[in-house]
Amino acid sequence: DADVTQTPRNRITKTGKRIMLECSQTKGHDRMYWYRQDPGLGLRLIYYSFDVKDINKGEISDGYSVSRQAQAKFSLSLESAIPNQTALYFCATSTRGGEQFFGPGTRLTVL
Amino acid sequence: QKEVEQDPGPLSVPEGAIVSLNCTYSNSAFQYFMWYRQYSRKGPELLMYTYSSGNKEDGRFTAQVDKSSKYISLFIRDSQPSDSATYLCAMSALSDKVIFGPGTSLSVIP
After folding, report:
1. Beta bridge partners of A90
2. Half-sphere exposure of B25 (CA within 13 A, CB side)
3. Is A51 helix (H, G, I), strand (E, B) or coil?
4. Which of A43, A92, A104 is closest, CB to CB, to B88?
5. Please, what sign has the CA dihedral across residues B11, B16, B18, B20?
6. A22-67 pLDDT, tens digit each
7. B14 touching A, CB under 8 A?
8. What is the rounded CA–CA span in Å between residue B35 and residue B38?
9. What is the pLDDT of residue B51?
């Protein structure tokens, strides 16, 4: 089984809808991250969490919120989706100072 | 100026060629330097991880870090079609947030 899983893998939604992307990990890592990837812009950090009680904004957090339900679960929400949030979203986990392990990604399209 | 700059390519080379991928950065606090490989429709996976300046070799891959020039490189020897992917440089300071470059798309032609 994959160490970092994301659901759904693909989602098409309409402007104004609320969307939740979920991430689960079995690696036992404390640190979890949400990134979005856009062509030419690379991976940009949306939110990160260093433990269950720690949530931090990344460089592009506007329009997004997160919830760390447990050490193994980290969800990303778009309260009111807009077309420029169309992107590939990745969840990642790490230990302190260790490599980041990425999930397979969620392709989100907002019409 | 972006914190991390990387030529997006695309880069196309014949099989067997030596490939050089490069990144420059502006934050002198970066101490940890990484290269990730991302195949199409997959998440990035760590290829090389180095601390501070110097070289690190792993099979056909060599990572170089020159902190004085704020420049890092990844060399791929005897490139193979299976090396075709997007390569992302990444770096962090004191094991904090990781900043990624935009990635270079590489195609190795048989």
Report:
1. A35
2. 28
3. strand
4. A43
5. positive
6. 999 999 999 999 999 998 788 999 999 999 999 999 989 999 999 9
7. no
8. 10
9. 85
